[in-house]
## 1
Amino acid sequence: MSASSSDSQSAARRQLQELLSTIEQLALSGLPVPQFHAEFVQHVTHGLDAEAGFVLLGTQRQPDSDPQQPDSGDSARHDVDYRVAARCERDGDGTSAIGLLRQDAAHTAVIERVWNDARSTAVLPGEAGNPTQRVLLIVPLTDTQSGQPFGIIELIRLSGIEPLAIENYLRLIERMARQAALFHKVSGLNDGQRHTQAHTQFLQAVHASLDRRRTAYAIVNEGRLLAGCERLSLALWDGHHCELEAVSGQGWFERRSRSVMLLEQLATQVASSQQPLWYGNGTPPPQHLTAAIMEYVDATKAREIVVVPVAQADETTKPDGHGVSTGPRPPLSMLLIAEQFSASAPPRSGRTTANDRPYLSSGSDQRDRA
């Protein structure tokens, strides 16, 4: 693989990570529902380079029963009333494509099928339900508890996408659709309830699996929102060296990349000192860590870094009457690394503003993140 191809793939991964991070923050933003839908579809449409996108909200209604009509036996079938909750068109072609879709009866049948099956689909040009020359990506928005759809997001993209790429796009949209469902779940809660909900979701995710890697990713993905940072990473400590285990929003990272090796080097030095590190926002780094911090910051453009060593649980170490642990310090097992790249940290709860949320960087402003 050429260097330019590798750089292009790294830039694409960074853009997707920032898009997912923005959607996660939006889900806990506390925005009014119409504003959330407008920002949600705008971020998804632009972030996935679609020509247009729209969110449909639907209400199911049972058709009036007619005693004169025989029972078809399809009691699960529903009629659905849809309304466009938000739309985003990047050009005139996107606007005309949305108009075509809204007037096409076969496309309405596709929407009905996605709704009833609660399953994503892609409709290629020339297939039934697609009167455009574009690829249609249709994903249901489903309730987090019942699993029943309450809406649909649809993106319109240029044709010529490889089948594998189409599947990847659907999985990405499904991931963001889950954040939209989370927004609807918590939008009626106050700040205290929202924070409690985030804690509950974190605990449920962390205890959902005994697999070490899955648990590590649950900690960083769910913990990032609680920590109020842009990226949370987890590194394991073996007594001599730290190895990065999980990075929030990234199911895969290049372990040999310079930024990963520099972060592991910094984490190793922090673990050796057994003292937490806070760098940024006017806080000078400890002298013995200055070189490692500056090298990492120069490579990644991180503005703030917090590294917290986490000790193994030790039942023989009990707190005294003042809540302070007595006895020998238990050995370290891992480190949590919180990072902030933009000028202001994302809020932990409550409403965000345009300046709070990081947007996708331009091609000339890409950062070499882990």
## 2
Amino acid sequence: MRLLCTLVAAGAAIFLAGELAPKPEAQPDIKGFTAFMQGLAQVLRVAVWVALAMALAFALFWLLRHVRFKGEAPAQAPAMPDLLFGLDVRPESLPKDVAAAALAQIARGELVVALSLLYRGALVALLHRHGVELAGGDTEADCLAKIKPRVQDSTQGYLARLVASWQAAAYAHRIPPAAEVEALARQWQGVFGTQAER
């Protein structure tokens, strides 16, 4: 019996030693976090490839628009319009001395005709002398906006006054005073010279 007691005591000691011994800590389950990070990495990888493809497409687009290749014909300048705002803007449609012709019309009392000559002459000078690109569908406001990078401030100011007088006479039927039209005619020579481009 002693043997049995010794065995029981030894078994209990082994059992208790096993219970009291420190257990190794369980590893946290990071399978979900790992899966999330792998998915995020895949999304970022795709995003980088898409961004690279877009950058390459943009670079090709830019090259095709801005680089002239050998053998490629140079771009032709747009054709000059014959009519703008319903006005004939061919150089041959104007008198040799626009300002003198306008002053003669003013002397006859034809202020609208004088304004028309001055305005047409200015448009012809802008098209042919200053290289301003005007299209048949442009408005007077478009014209004033397009001349800004091409002409001096004094010319812009003159054209703004001329356009305002022309619009008042042609569209609102408010004819400016003869002295104002005459001043525009005399200033025309200082801005554009005596002749429109031919």
## 3
Amino acid sequence: MGPYLGDFVEDSVINHPWDTNDANGASITRAVDGSIRIYKNNTDTQKTTANGITDTEDFDGLVGIHQLSVDTSDDTGDVGFWERGNDYFVVLQGATIDGQTVNAVLCSFSIENRSRLNVILGAVQSATLPGNRTSSPVPLEMYQNEQKTFLLTVNDSSGDPVDLSAMTLRFVVHDENDMTAAVFKVELPDITTSGVSNEIANVTVSAAKAATANSSLLWKLWDITGEQVLMSGNLKIKTAKKDSP
């Protein structure tokens, strides 16, 4: 059984090295490469095409060392296959190794399917709001049909500021009653960084994204580059303010 690689943010590229050996344990290449199959959840539903799958045999000229790369952002020919809240397992089918026909599970992984608030992939950073250090989920509020910029400060476990400037940041919001699809996302150019150490993410939620009042939203600030959640919490979009008579 291949290893579980972890819980990944949607649209990630997943890399997995694996090896082939003869009966005595010596490294050996595949006489017949076979094919890579990817299955979704505990079913025989498999990815229809090989789009986004790269199987590099004898990686870097090393006999018996192979590199698998799966780009989950590539939906060409497989619309709806890669979805958050699901598990996947990767199978090598019909290879010939040391004169034997081999079918084997290479690995498994999931897409945002291990926790509603924190995906454990790398060290999840402790987080603060300016002047209010907290390791608990961070509550945010805004009014319906109004634009608002949230200032989210990220510190590491030692309390030191984390430089966010080299990260690709994404602010993702889901309804806790329906975790299958995001209510909305905020990305560049609506996320910028500031602060002495670029530790503050300035997340601007537009009025259009806040068009519907909702008190059951969950949010995550993702580091897409490092595939980890930096901060998370609750978001309440309150009913639009009314002018006084």
## 4
Amino acid sequence: MDKPVEEMTRKELLQAAKDDAAKQGLVAPFGAKNKELRAMLKGEKPYIESAERRKRKGRVPLGTMRSKLDVSGYDIPKNKVPRWINDHPGRLLAAQEGSYQFVEDPNVVVGEEPLSGRDNLETKVSRVVGKKEDGTPLKAYLMVIDKDIYDEDQREKQKINDEIMSQIDKGKFASSETGVDVHRTYVPKEGITIESKLE
């Protein structure tokens, strides 16, 4: 490299990263941002092993069933739990307020040609999953949450479910949401028995 990486044009960065990665038997990710390419050239960020990437994504023969919402092709850290969240009004904001974070695609550069049928305005991983009432595409965004927060949330949900099941067992389940009046419920003489098929 004759020039410092900070002074290189986009074209020069792409070529230098391609050459540098090839010397190591690796590849520079297509569409990496200039900042990422500079970090790779300085050795601050690793290049991608193309064979490893293909292995991680897995080969799916053309014409076979594919999961549109599969997350195996993304580097989801082990301490995170992924979830696709539909872009219904307020839903993504609620997810962010609940500690979910968007998964960013490092291979997308904002403003360049769109990849995978996605628009070129964002780097957030998304898929079209349906239609909104107005006919525009409904997107789902891939988001992650820390596993410890996720587990805590699941324990809280389970407490509510356990309380409801306890009330059902006693024949006293009443709720303003269901409109069930506890005084008008029927409990047989032998009581209510619930068998779990999961255990």
